[in-house]
Please model this.
Amino acid sequence: MKILLLDGSCKDENYNDRLFQVAHHTLQASGHNLKTYDLSQLTIAPCLGCFGCWIKTPGECIIHDDGRLIAKELMQNDVVVFFTPIVFGGYSSELKKALDRFIPNILPFFRIHQNEIHHVPRYSCYPDLIFLGTLTEKDQSLEHTFYQLNQRNVLNMYPTYFSSTVIYEHQTDDEIKKHLEKVLKEVKII
Amino acid sequence: MKSQNKNKKVTLLVGSPRKEKSASEALGLYLCKHLDPVQFVYQKMYLRDQVYKKDKDREWVQDILQSNLIILASPLYVDSLPSFVIKTFEIIHRQAKKENRRKGIKLLAIINSGFPESFQNQIALDICRHFTQKADMVWLGGLALGSGMFLGGKDIGKMGWFVRNIKKSLDETAVALNQGMPIPESAIALMQKAIFGKKIFQWLANLGFKQRAKRNGLKNEIYRRPYIEKE
Model:
């Protein structure tokens, strides 16, 4: 199984990589083929909202940078793990800049799905998803928004299985590892 | 920016990379133009230009933090705000924590999406609300619009019956802001009213994309699968 781990951590002066390292080791220990990208090190321009990936160069963004690479990797892995600090209830700008470039992987056309309008998939198969949010401490309100956002993304990214969870800085490495193993079981990785 | 009578500074943050061609700017500008000109003076910022500017002092952030009222007008991108709007929030939040700045800046958001259902914008509005709380600002509420793509960058004031509920919503919001009040519930409800039903939206939008692709010489190529390895 091929697993893609996208690290959306903001590498500012308060950054501590412990949570990411525990997540990375836990995924590695699953024995699958793991590929990791530190999104802060990639050149990913923001989506232009030009629809070029739909009506000019279908399936590929018109911007030639690492955003194209990530869009391709998203389609060529079995599971994608989005690792992000929870920022105002959503994803970090580092992760979001990559996610905004996902839209070449869907068609411009619309359909009714679960009684809502959504885009038609471009491909017949999409990766399963794990949303892994981090917080310094428990915050029910932010977590609620984060989980709702995950649910909305699932409607538009078509995984067969998905799981989302939040880990905290006060948790020990062992607690986080056990927590993550449950998540990996939900997505049939272990 | 200040004149004798105008002492409240409003900053319109345009969160669309399409700038003046965007529904976001059209919505934000309509609202700004309907604010009481005696009380308010407004300025406009394109966030995509500001965030990536090589400006070490980030004067644009100071400029925003000196506002009395911030109006964010943004499209919905992948169920949330565009990355550079989130980046703006991150920068403002960091800066606001560092310095002793003006307290009680008010913020409201107008989010529009390319789906007909306005509720698909709710998460983006929730993120704006969380931001205002973390940045010690005052949340005045949010307006959510579906089918925003059909507005383009047109002047809403010159558009007709099609946008009547949008105009009414923004007019009511302007009246409330002129009185120092948050967005009224009636304005929120008016903006939420669907421009098109699902079936009509689906037909119009699908036809529109097919025609635009055709103008670029594309027909079946529109269904290309360049990253097919998995199938």
Remarks:
- Residues 2-180 of chain A form a domain with the Rossmann fold fold (CATH 3.40.50.360).
- Chain A has one domain: 2-180.
